[in-house]
């Protein structure tokens, strides 16, 4: 191929991610032209409500998939935490790249930690996963809806609309905004979303030449971990935006350790599980964890 077109959202973070992949492709394949096709998605436009109320994670990818389907683009680059557990027929994730820092970040100009925040203080997030974990440990805090791109969210914090906000560390790092991080939230305090910190490259399954080019960007260790995490989400409801967290790491040998939780939005009901399994079959490990969560009441919490 002589040219590839990447469909991307217009936010500065999405453009950075698309250009990052474009640069890697150009370096791998001398003479290959790679262009960006910036687009607006419904997820970017509907910023007055939570994603689960607006239609789920697919709001961020549908327009990009349409561009690939009608031939305007060959691939799309996504934050894996924004990718629905099930892709539409005819599409596949050709590569999942090496993971950045998967942790969430606590950002505040008033307080140094979540523990320091007094009762009644406000914290902004659009994520039910983050909300439920915050209020489980800190029931006195008031969680308020926070939507928009990274810069918009930081601006709202700086204007005093929130006492603190929670963002993904990876997004801040990619934009050179690590200095805004007040504290990292470790996995014991805030378990990440499935795929958090990793980029996924989606294309049409029938474009085998494109798939072959993209597969060279895949990171096997990250891919196994993310596949295990996404298997939990898939088994517990698929593409809906769920108060669900899952995070896998590689341990000794070819083993993965997968932690996951499901929580009610008010944090009053939380079920957790941790298991180990073979990295060669991450979906099986994710399925086992999901089944154990179901036995503990996850389906009832999620309303399945």
Model description:
- The protein is an alpha/beta fold and 304 residues long.
- It folds into three domains: 118 residues, D-Maltodextrin-Binding Protein, domain 2; 82 residues, 3-Layer(aba) Sandwich (D-Maltodextrin-Binding Protein, domain 2), CATH 3.40.190.10; 70 residues, Double Stranded RNA Binding Domain, CATH 3.30.160.40.
- Helices cover 33% and strands 25% of the residues.
- It has eleven helices and 13 strands.
- The strands form three sheets. It has a five-stranded mixed beta sheet, sandwiched between helices. Strands 7-6-8-5-9 form a five-stranded mixed beta sheet, sandwiched between helices.
- A hairpin with a 3-residue loop joins strand 11 and strand 12.
- The N and C termini lie far apart (45 Å).
- The mean pLDDT is 92.
């Amino acid at each position: 191929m002589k040219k590839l077109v990447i469909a991307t959202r217009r936010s500065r973070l999405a453009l950075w991610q698309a250009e990052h992949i474009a640069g890697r492709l150009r370096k791998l394949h001398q003479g290959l032209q790679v262009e960006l096709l910036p687009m607006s998605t419904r997820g970017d436009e509907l910023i007055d409500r939570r994603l689960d109320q607006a239609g789920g994670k697919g709001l961020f990818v549908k327009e990009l998939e349409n561009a690939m389907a009608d031939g305007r683009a060959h691939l799309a680059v996504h934050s894996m935490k924004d990718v629905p557990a099930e892709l539409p027929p005819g599409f596949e994730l050709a590569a999942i790249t090496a993971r950045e820092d998967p942790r969430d970040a606590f950002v505040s100009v008033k307080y140094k930690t979540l523990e320091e925040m007094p009762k009644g203080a406000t914290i902004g997030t659009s994520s039910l996963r983050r909300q439920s974990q915050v209020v489980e440990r800190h029931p006195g805090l008031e969680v308020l809806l926070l939507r928009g791109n990274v810069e918009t969210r930081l601006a709202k914090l700086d204007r005093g609309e929130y006492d603190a906000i929670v963002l993904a560390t990876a997004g801040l790092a990619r934009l050179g905004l690590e200095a805004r991080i007040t504290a990292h939230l470790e996995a014991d305090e805030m378990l990440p979303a499935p795929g958090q910190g990793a980029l996924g490259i989606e294309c049409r399954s029938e474009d085998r030449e494109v798939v072959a080019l993209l597969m060279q960007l895949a990171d096997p260790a990250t891919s196994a971990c993310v596949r295990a995490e996404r298997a939990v989400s898939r088994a517990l409801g698929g593409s809906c935006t769920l108060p669900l967290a899952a995070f896998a790491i590689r341990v000794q040998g070819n083993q993965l350790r997968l932690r996951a939780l499901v929580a009610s939005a008010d944090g009053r009901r939380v079920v957790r599980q941790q298991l180990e399994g073979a990295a060669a079959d991450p979906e099986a490990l994710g399925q086992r964890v999901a089944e154990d969560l179901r036995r503990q009441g996850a389906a009832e919490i999620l309303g399945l």
